[in-house]
Write a structure and sequence with these properties.
With 312 residues, this protein is of the alpha/beta class. It is 32% helix and 21% strand. It has a single domain, classed as TIM Barrel, CATH 3.20.20.70. The chain has helices spanning 27-34, 80-89, 105-118, 143-153, 171-181, 225-238, 254-263, 272-277, 281-295, and strands at 5-7, 10-12, 16-18, 39-43, 60-62, 68-71, 96-100, 123-127, 160-165, 188-191, 195-199, 201-202, 207-208, 216-221, 244-248, 267-270. Bound molecules: flavin mononucleotide.
Length: 312
């Protein structure tokens, strides 16, 4: 299959990449994704202005079924300078997306100004949806703040920007966020981030499994697939065609990748199951996807992307 896909000035030969936060905190991890067979791109860890230790351990938990996770990492990262240095000065094999975040509007703007001043010309992903920093709401659940922030960003920023969104659960909210995003020259949206503030209980001890936030944490893996697909589909139906979509959430099999494509995803990223299985997952998922294409006699991505059928 020809997987050739373009977002802004970046060209991808494969559909899959690591989801933000997975295998991407250190150069060592990033290099493993760069060289993973079947990977089409690399996402760096969401970077704050200064490096952060994140929340206390335990802050990540894999369910016994090995297909689901809950985390309250709290954005541990090595700081924007580290990741900017990586994308600017390392020999990159794959298109690499620089993920940025901030704990305040001013920090976000300062990060983007720094990136712009560096001359970096690749894709940048602004994370508007981290659910795990105590006391800091997910920005993209506040529509007015999101609009105001994007307005401030585009008063100076000329780079290729995508935004990472939290999951929405109400049709009115899909309408609202799409209307805001359509006002700006965004390269893409990435949907979805972890489903915020779930709670997992250990049946042996009757205790929560995470230390921070009283055990509340972001959900990932198979349990969030339906929510992720709904978000990709709802956004694809509402966003202007120039805004591409990275589908994220609930991918554990090639069929999950296929379903994201049906809903309109241009690329698909893998979080929890990559953390569980390691970078060999990309080739497995691509092989499973190929098998589905062969079985259905599909010869081009255009026959699948956004081609979800309705019952009426
Ligand atoms: N998303 C980000 O945009 N930036 C991050 O730094 C980030 N860190 C994460 C760390 C962990 C341990 C996990 C499990 C998720 C993190 N996420 C982050 C969210 C994932 O990128 C992804 O959106 C979410 O896990 C849903 O995908 P999944 O169902 O494949 O896990």
């Amino acid at each position: 299959m020809n997987y050739s896909t373009t977002i802004a000035n970046e060209h991808f030969d494969h559909l899959l990449l690591n989801a933000g936060g997975i295998f991407c905190e250190s150069v060592d991890q990033l290099e493993k994704i760069q060289h993973a067979p079947g990977a089409g791109a690399v996402m760096t860890k969401s970077a704050t202005a200064e490096k952060r230790a994140g929340n206390p351990n335990p802050r990540y938990f894999t369910y016994p079924d090995h297909h689901n996770t809950i985390n309250a990492m709290g954005l541990p990262n090595l700081g924007i300078d580290y990741y900017l240095d990586y994308v600017l000065h390392h020999q990159l094999t794959l298109p690499t997306i620089l993920s940025v975040v901030g704990l305040s509007e001013e920090e976000i703007l300062a990060n983007l100004k720094k990136i712009q001043a560096s001359g970096y010309d690749g894709l940048i992903e602004l994370n508007l949806s981290c659910p795990n920093v105590p006391g800091k709401p997910q920005i993209a659940y506040d529509f007015d703040t999101t609009d105001h922030l994007l307005d401030r960003i585009y008063s100076f920023f000329t780079g290729h920007l995508g935004v990472k969104l939290p999951p929405y659960f109400d049709m009115a909210h899909f309408d609202r966020i799409a209307k805001i995003l359509n006002q700006y020259p965004l390269a893409y949206v990435n949907a979805v981030n972890s489903v915020g503030n779930g709670l997992v209980i250990d049946p042996e001890t009757d205790r929560v499994v995470l230390m921070a936030k009283g055990g509340f944490g972001g959900l990932g893996g198979a349990q969030i697939k339906a929510t992720a697909l709904a978000n990709v589909r709802a956004l694809r139906l509402r966003l202007k065609p120039e805004i591409k979509i990275i589908g994220t959430g609930g991918v554990t099999t090639g069929r999950d990748v296929y379903d994201h494509l049906l809903c309109g995803a241009d690329l698909v990223s893998v979080g929890s199951q990559l953390a569980i299985e390691g970078p060999s997952i990309f080739q497995r998922l691509e092989d499973e996807l190929e098998a589905i294409f062969a079985e259905k006699h599909i010869e081009s991505l255009d026959q699948v992307r956004g081609k979800l059928k309705r019952l009426d």
